[in-house]
Amino acid sequence: MAIKADDRLIVALDFHTMEDVKALVEKLGDSVSYYKVGMELFYSVGGEVVRWLRGQGKHVFLDLKLHDIPNTVAGGLCSLMDLGADILNVHASGGYTMMKTAADRLHAAAEERGIPCPKLIAITVLTSINQEDWDGVGQTLPIQDAVVRLAKLAKSAGLDGVVASPQEAALIREACGADFLIVTPGVRPAGSAINDQSRIATPAKALTNGASHLVIGRPIRAAEDPKAAAEAILKEMETVK
Ligand SMILES: O=C(O)c1cc(=O)[nH]c(=O)n1[C@@H]1O[C@H](COP(=O)(O)O)[C@@H](O)[C@H]1O
Prior knowledge:
InterPro entries: Aldolase_TIM, OMPdecase, OMPdecase_AS, OMPdecase_bac, OMPdeCOase_dom, RibuloseP-bd_barrel. Keywords: Decarboxylase, Lyase, Pyrimidine biosynthesis. It is built from 12 helices and 8 strands. By secondary structure, the protein is of the alpha/beta class. The protein has one domain: Aldolase class I (TIM Barrel). β7 (about 180-185), α10 (about 205-210) and β8 (about 215) form a beta-alpha-beta unit. The chain is globular and about 45 Å long. The N and C termini lie close together (about 10 Å). Orotidine-5'-monophosphate (OMP) binds near residues 12, 126 and 163.
């Protein structure tokens, strides 16, 4: 997939103040062009942060992981789309009907409002889930089989891609084709702290496996020099053809 390395790195802004956001975005400067706004930040500062990032010329993945009945999820996405994020997401485990209703209503709303439609992607199995968690919720398929099944379901419902661990990216790429977005958190440069992630891989391995975008938070945010950490990751990403 011919996307530049700096458009494939999405830095997770897991903060709860605009001051922290502005300080990091300023520090990273032109090195990073894509940011993720998740629930910690959105619940505390609201849509202002998406508008601010867009005003800085940055791309935004608004990661609110919607999971509810079809009508509620579709309505929620239509409310969010005016903020101008490039990517929105839902949980694939909400099922085919929820995802199809969401995708159809989002496309119709974009057309009606005359604005570009954000990409809609689905969480397959969270990257923090390990075998014990998986067994604990009564799942019996191997995790990777469940991920591929959910990715195919998301594709058939008209979604643009999925969120999955880098360990499953190759299987998803094979099952869902070259243009499907595969956004992988759970990325850790060699030697960095794993934190609460379980199914991880290095930036180079994630790309080799077929990820289109990498979501990375703490290895950059918690680094003594976040810009140097981001640039080292981008350099590693550029080694993958
Ligand atoms: O949707 C996500 O972005 C997401 C899905 C998933 O399965 N795992 C996952 O870690 N994430 C998000 O990706 C980011 C990973 O952050 P770090 O673990 O700090 O690199 C966090 O903001 C998570 O909310």
